[in-house]
Design a protein that fits this description.
Layout: E1 2-5, E2 13-26, E3 31-44, E4 47-53, E5 56-62, E6 66-81, E7 86-103, E8 106-126, E9 129-144, E10 148-165, E11 169-181, E12 187-201, E13 204-211
Parallel strand pairs: 1-5
Antiparallel strand pairs: 2-3, 3-6, 4-5, 6-7, 7-8, 8-9, 9-10, 10-11, 11-12, 12-13
Length: about 210
């Protein structure tokens, strides 16, 4: 159950946003690049506090002024190698946020940072063989005032697909890997592997799959 308590004060928010964008393309070299940079500043005339009373979450708004700033960088890098049948790309994003929160009636500054990367590879070395890889990497942490620093957590997801096409038979393999930090001292790993076989001759088709 949730309850919200307002002070009756009219909320006033002010925001400033500055941004810049750069793009580069070279079709002959199969090279592409984008970069987006942004900076934000905000001011508020009230602050929110989360309290728990008798198994109930209560959001209380206090008439206390607060402000925050943030930086973020986003973009994509892509490079192709036509002679090798190879395409690569990387999406990236990282940022920093500084603001204030209230806990136990005390206003505390905090910093939150993150990084995110998404690599992709597509390779077709011969006509009948295809390999695709993609992953996502997330990393971030938070620091509250000078006393509390939450350990940065790493989360990784990787996917690999491989297929080979014979004249009558098509083989496929795919694997997924998951890695997650639960805390500073504990992490979990998971692997999934799938295989498939497809046989086709005239109007007949046979499909076999194995999953875990």
């Amino acid at each position: 159950r949730h309850a919200v308590h307002h002070t009756g004060q009219l909320p006033v928010y002010r925001n400033q946003i500055y941004s810049a964008y750069v793009e580069y393309k070279n079709m002959l070299k199969e090279l592409f690049f984008t970069l987006s940079l942004s900076h934000t500043r905000n001011w508020k005339n009230r602050i929110q506090e989360q309290q728990i009373h008798e198994d109930q979450v209560v959001l209380v708004y206090h008439p206390i002024s607060t402000h925050g700033t943030g930086w973020s960088v986003n973009g994509t890098i892509s490079k192709g190698f036509f002679d090798w049948g190879l395409k690569t790309s990387l999406n990236y994003s990282f940022g920093l946020q500084e603001s204030e929160q209230i806990s136990g009636g005390v206003k505390l500054p905090y910093k939150s940072s993150y990084m995110y990367y998404e690599p992709k590879i597509s390779w077709n070395p011969v006509n009948r063989l295809t390999l695709d890889y993609e992953g996502s990497i997330r990393y971030g942490g938070t620091k509250i005032a000078n006393a509390t620093k939450l350990s940065p957590l790493l989360n990784v997801v990787q996917k690999l697909n491989l297929s080979y096409d014979f004249k009558l038979i098509e083989l496929g393999f795919s694997t997924d890997h998951y890695y997650n930090d639960v805390s500073a001292d504990k992490s979990v790993n998971a692997f999934l592997l799938d295989a498939s076989l497809k046989w086709q001759s005239g109007p007949w088709q046979i499909h076999l799959k194995a999953n875990n």
